[in-house]
Design goal:
This protein is α+β, with helices and mostly antiparallel strands. It has 17 helices and 27 strands.
Length: 637
């Protein structure tokens, strides 16, 4: 073949081909051709070598590289990690994915067969962003254009909440011009002149919109096929319905789409969002395309533009992040509207590994929660103070002027929060039996060791899971509890509902004791006691097995100790007097007997600068039960 090629190319006459394979050196080639072949061979060898190279992992602890990036060079890893730190998701990968990439259609099969009227209301899509990656924004825009019927999509309104990224200025304007060249007048942008926060950005988008219906979305989304028609059809039927699509998860590292189950939206007493199971009434319909009645709504929503204005849009007094969606949900239900989740409307939402713009979400969330409580929750507002462990009088947090929102509630003739609890969200159990709560302040808490694993460790308090210990349960949540196996082994962390099933000892006293033999160290103890009932007697509560005030007997047991903030506790023998005991949890009469000797979990902290210690931080929530007994909840904070 080589000889034939040479003859055709250079006019070389055919040679007699021997029966053996000639060496390359025996074949006379023009110097130019030899050079080209040599370069091709070198390229092949280079490719083989690169495939064999195993690059050193520069960031083995980074969440970015747990599932992705094994083939990246060290330089590429550094670039990807820097972008991940800045944005909270994999911009390196996003910049290399097509803007019009296909995503799985996660709708129910019956949704795909459903037909909608042609003459549906028009739609304005609002995209909110602040220092978002350019490729993320452009992919969101592209998905909306490609997956929304053009006769329904009136406009896409971008709201920039004072971004500092340079590419979100001139370059983004150029991209908008390019889109508008193909789709005249489709895109517009609103730019804040100062940072005003998520809620005000959404309000700005609503003010700039002109279509019949507004869909207020984050800019880090991809809408799925057929997402708009169910929303527009339902709002055409009833303009007072606020709609939430079903969210799917775009993973922050590899951008794989994970399908999420259809569920209702809810919240806890701290106003953190959570998913609720589908109501029985929905299952009774036997129609998986039917709207789901929902107590609350997440951040992404669609509404009739005029109706949303009539009920006050959003509370512009909210700061930065958190609580604004719960406030809207309460206002909608209490003031004559309703909230629904539509199973046939799916939106893929990119969930960040961290929020670079707000390292501690609880600061703004706590303030906003108090604002919601003061306007919409009536006497139930104290539940919010309990959840955030704040004094009811003078909490020390300025939640702003709420007079205009109270006037709005009065003007709209809204229902009470008690009506909302009873008719809309009965799963939200009021803490009406609370008679006292408070905090023992410190910086060291019980936490969970490396995952997977169930070893309790000492760690800095951060008020998030798994630093939660409870002695009673109102739902089947998968909280993690500190348990004593009853065998003399070390305590370990177990899912609370599983601990109950296994009959593990999980009821603990909080105990503050005096000086340790070393005069510069004191300690705090959790004590697992023999089963005792905590009961009331003449409006006082005490320990014991009969109506008598208090009890006193020496407790001797094994002490679990730790020096440092991340050491595994170990056991020591220690005598302990009960005279300084503060509170005990209620133990059910059926609770299995614990060890003959009491188990004492002692936490010690060694401060390298000053030889001192700090007690365990525990939120104490005392409940008066219908039976007259007292029960206690502990939350390590």
């Amino acid at each position: 073949n080589i000889l034939t090629l040479l003859r055709l190319t250079f006019g070389i006459l055919p040679l007699q081909i021997p029966f053996y394979k000639e060496k390359e050196d025996d074949i006379k080639l023009p110097e130019e051709s030899k050079g080209e072949m040599h370069q091709a061979e070198k390229a092949k060898e280079k490719d083989k070598m690169e495939k064999k190279v195993v690059h050193r992992k520069l960031f083995p602890d980074s969440h970015l590289f747990k599932r992705w990036g094994a083939d990246l060079t060290e330089e590429q890893q550094t670039t990807a990690q820097d972008l991940f730190t800045k944005y909270g998701y994999n911009v390196y990968l996003s910049d290399r994915l097509p803007l019009d990439r296909p995503i799985p259609d996660t709708r129910y099969p019956s949704c795909k067969e459903k037909k909608y009227p042609h003459d549906l209301p028009t739609l304005s899509v609002i995209l909110i962003f602040m220092n978002e990656a350019m490729s993320i924004i452009l992919r969101a825009i592209t998905s909306i254009i490609n997956r929304t019927p053009s006769h329904l999509l009136k406009e896409i309104v971008l709201v920039d909440d004072y971004s500092s990224n340079e590419d979100l200025k001139g370059y983004l304007d150029e991209q908008i011009k390019n889109y508008n060249a193909k789709h005249p007048g489709l895109l517009k942008i609103v730019r804040h002149q100062k940072r005003e926060g998520l809620t005000q950005a959404r309000i700005s988008g609503w003010e700039a919109s002109t279509a019949d219906v507004v869909a207020i979305l984050d800019a880090h989304i991809e809408v799925n096929v057929g997402w708009a028609e169910p929303i527009l059809s339902r709002i055409k039927e009833d303009r007072t319905v606020i709609i939430s699509p079903v969210f799917d998860n775009v993973r922050f590292d590899d951008f794989e789409l994970l399908e999420y189950a259809v569920s209702a939206d809810g919240f806890d007493w701290a106003l953190w969002c959570l998913y609720e199971p589908l109501p029985k009434e929905w299952y009774a319909l036997k129609d998986e395309t039917a709207p789901v009645r929902s107590p609350s709504i997440m951040g992404i929503l669609a509404a009739h533009r005029v109706f949303l204005g009539e009920i006050g849009v959003l509370d512009g007094g909210m700061h930065i992040y958190g609580g604004e969606n719960v406030e809207l949900g309460l206002r909608v239900w209490q003031c004559g509207g309703q909230i629904e989740v539509l199973p046939c409307a799916r939106v893929a939402h990119l969930e960040r590994a961290h929020k670079p713009y707000l390292l501690d979400l609880s600061i703004a969330m706590r303030r906003n929660a108090l604002r919601v409580a003061e306007v919409w929750m009536d006497d139930y507002k104290y539940m919010i103070y309990f959840a955030w462990n704040l004094p009811i009088e003078n909490p020390g947090i300025d939640y702003g002027d709420v007079s205009s929102r109270k006037e709005l509630r009065k003007k709209l003739n809204c229902k009470s929060f008690d009506w909302y609890i009873k008719n809309v969200y009965p799963n939200l159990i009021p803490l009406t039996t609370v008679v006292g709560y408070g905090t023992v302040s410190t910086n060291i808490c019980i936490d969970q060791g490396p995952v997977p694993g169930n070893t309790p460790i000492m760690y800095g308090c951060h008020a998030y899971s798994p630093q939660v210990l409870k002695t009673s349960y109102l739902t089947n949540a998968v909280d993690r509890c500190l348990t004593d196996p009853g065998t003399g082994d070390l305590p370990f962390i177990e899912q609370c509902n599983e601990a109950v099933k296994k009959g593990l000892n999980m009821h603990w006293d909080f105990k503050q004791v005096g000086e340790f033999p070393c005069p510069y160290i004191s300690m705090a103890c959790f004590i697992l006691k023999e089963p005792k009932m905590l009961y009331t007697h003449e409006d006082k509560f005490s320990y014991g097995e009969a109506p008598a005030v208090g009890f006193a007997h020496a407790i001797q047991g094994a002490k679990l100790m730790s020096l440092g903030t991340a050491d595994t506790p170990h056991l020591m023998d220690q005598d302990l007097d009960t005279s300084n005991s503060i509170l005990s949890s209620t133990l059910p009469t059926s609770h299995p007997a614990s060890l003959a000797t009491t188990r004492i979990l002692t936490i010690m902290h060694w401060d390298q600068a000053i030889l001192s210690s700090r007690s365990l931080a525990v939120e104490l929530l005392v409940r008066r039960e219908k039976s007259g007994l007292m029960s206690v909840q502990y939350k390590v904070i």
